[in-house]
């Protein structure tokens, strides 16, 4: 699969953009485990234009994580164009436009998936951004606003006509948020439309290696994008890569091996940001990871992990958990079942 001159190889697996998740530490970890391209957290065009420090920091990437895409969102043509030019100065491999975020504070004011209620403006923004920058522009969006307005098949052609060079589709409407099951049939319909010639990236509910292979084989997409399935589980990229190439999963590792992956991410996140914000950024990963699920009497320990404001305390908790798991010969049932049933 190619995005202009950027060759991602066959069956690329891509890390999706996720707010408060895909910071540099997590992107680099996913890259180490085989992600073929990573996305930054999405970036507000308004905040970029106003040079808000917190937002400007999101543009910081490293050569080690390339190829990398920086994603922007907004609902005004001029602001999105100016933001795209600012992003281009950070030299990402791809600039992505977010027409898919469903959260109320974004979609409710007409940005993200809220743009699906104003297709003419959505297309005007896309066309204007493409013309304003030399970097390849892509789009990530959803099937439509709700079940009565699933516009993705026709919209995909219109976006292609605007000059985008790849399209990522989340198989839900905005009304669904993240509920229900992703509908990959419409993603497949876009991919199999003979008038479409840009790469189509499928997104939604890919949480296993078998699910990724099925999506490639059944719907013919050019790439798979992994979002929530990677949170607290960056090794999913290695699992999928192994299954794609060999038809088998990598061997289940020791508990300490997986815990050390999480430990590395925590330390890197703290060092790259600061202790307080780095630990806050890690809370979703710690809460979501299958590593601790199934451990007996773990509720109080989990609460302590999520509330601590000290790196040393969190690492000490990790050590205590490791000692207990090894002494009692425990292993998280969710992680074992997840691995064996992939």
What does this entry look like structurally?
- An eight-stranded parallel β-barrel has the order 3-4-6-7-8-9-10-11, surrounded by seven helices. A two-stranded antiparallel sheet has the order 1-2.
- The chain is α/β, with parallel strands linked by helices.
- The chain has two domains: 2-246, TIM Barrel (Alpha-Beta Barrel), CATH 3.20.20; 255-333.
- Helix content is 46%, strand content 12%.
- The protein has helices spanning 24-32, 45-49, 53-57, 77-89, 104-107, 119-132, 152-162, 184-191, 209-219, 236-246, 255-272, 275-288, 299-307, 311-327, 333-340, and strands spanning 2-3, 6-7, 13-15, 37-39, 43-44, 68-73, 94-99, 137-142, 167-170, 200-203, 223-226.
- The chain is built from 15 helices and eleven strands.
- The mean pLDDT is 93.
- The two termini are 25 Å apart.
- Helix 9 crosses helix 10 (236-246) and helix 12 runs antiparallel to helix 13.
Indicate the percent of residues in helices: 40-55%
Rounded to an integer in angstroms, the radius of gyration calculated over CA atoms is 20 Å
How many discrete structural domains?
2
Q: Using the 3D structure, state the CATH architecture of the largest domain.
A: Alpha-Beta Barrel
**Spatial order of strands in the largest sheet:** 3-4-6-7-8-9-10-11
Mean pLDDT comes to 93
What is the top-level CATH class of the largest domain? Alpha Beta
The total beta strand count reads 11
Q: Main β-sheet: number of strands, strand sense, barrel status?
A: 8 strands, parallel, barrel
- H-E order: EEEHEEHHEHEHHEHEHEHEHHHHHH
CATH topology of the largest domain: TIM Barrel
> Can you count the helices?
15
Per the principal axes of the C-alpha atoms, what is the gross shape? globular
């Amino acid at each position: 699969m190619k995005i202009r001159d950027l060759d991602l190889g066959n069956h690329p697996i891509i890390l999706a953009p996720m707010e408060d998740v895909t910071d540099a530490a997590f992107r680099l970890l996913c890259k180490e485990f085989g992600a073929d391209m990573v996305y930054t957290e999405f970036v507000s065009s308004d905040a970029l234009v106003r040079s808000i420090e917190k937002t400007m920091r999101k543009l910081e990437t490293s050569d080690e994580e390339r190829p990398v895409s920086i994603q922007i969102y907004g609902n005004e043509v001029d602001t999105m164009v100016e933001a795209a030019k600012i992003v281009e100065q950070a030299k990402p491999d791809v600039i992505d436009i977010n027409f898919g975020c469903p959260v109320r504070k974004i979609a409710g004011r007409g940005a993200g998936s809220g743009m699906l209620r104003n297709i003419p403006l959505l297309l005007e923004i896309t066309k204007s951004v493409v013309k304003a920058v030399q970097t390849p522009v892509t789009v990530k969006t959803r099937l439509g606003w709700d079940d009565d307005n699933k516009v993705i098949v026709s919209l995909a052609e219109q976006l292609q006509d605007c000059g985008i060079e790849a399209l990522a589709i989340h198989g839900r409407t905005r009304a669904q948020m993240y509920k229900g099951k992703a509908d990959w049939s419409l993603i497949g319909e876009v991919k199999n439309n003979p008038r479409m010639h840009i790469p189509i990236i499928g997104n939604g509910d890919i949480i296993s290696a078998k699910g990724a292979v099925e999506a490639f084989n059944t719907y013919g997409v050019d790439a798979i994008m992994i979002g929530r399935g990677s949170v607290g589980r960056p090794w999913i990229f290695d699992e999928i890569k192994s299954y794609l190439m060999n038809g088998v999963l990598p061997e289940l590792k020791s508990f300490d091996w997986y815990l050390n992956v999480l430990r590395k991410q925590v330390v890197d996140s703290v060092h790259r940001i600061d202790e307080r914000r780095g630990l806050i950024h890690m809370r979703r990963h710690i809460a979501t990871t299958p590593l601790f699920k199934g451990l007996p009497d773990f509720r109080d320990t989990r609460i302590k992990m999520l509330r601590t404001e000290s790196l040393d305390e969190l690492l000490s908790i990790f050590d205590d958990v490791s000692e207990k798991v090894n002494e009692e010969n425990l292993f998280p049932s969710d992680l074992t079942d997840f691995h064996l049933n992939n």
